[in-house]
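Appendix B, record 7
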Amino acid sequence: MEKKLRVTFNSPLVLGFALACAAVTLLGTLTGGKSTALLFSTRAASLSDPLSFIRIFTHVLGHSGLAHLVGNMAYILLLGPALEEKYGWKNLLTVILVTALITGLIHNLLFPRSLLLGASGVVFSFILLTSFTEFREGEIPLTFVLVAVIYLGQQLWEGFTVQDNVSNLTHIVGGLVGSGAGYLLNMRKAQRP
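Structure tokens (predicted):
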């Protein structure tokens, strides 16, 4: 008897995140960018503005357009399901939220006049977190070293040599969050009896 193939909702957090990003980008397009500027991008603002606290997390959902969205979602959908399976949705959600918080705060402190939006920090967090999947206590995976050198090195280089609207600092900070999360999550797992 032949078994039927069916599509499964295999990674609820990652798929939900990708769908939320797509919905926010569509809303931004329909509103001429007004919704994105109001709710899904972060910038230095008065602490009396309650939206400042929301935007520090929601900026990872906003994207400047379809190309920006597709570029980020390709990595999120490629790397995210394996990470969600290995670490669980709660840990991966924590990584996303911590990445959003730290990249948003650092951006607002260092670049108070510019907007930050997009899931690039989360992408780099996922890239470095993925390189920790074969971590064992007392070892540093060579894949992690190579990925860190290649991806973070590229961002450092481009940060100094390329003038564009890409926040290389956000990529670097996201990668550092992913590295730290990979180390901590694997150390916690290694210490369990």
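Remarks on this record: The chain has a mean pLDDT of 88. The first helix runs from residue 12 to 30.
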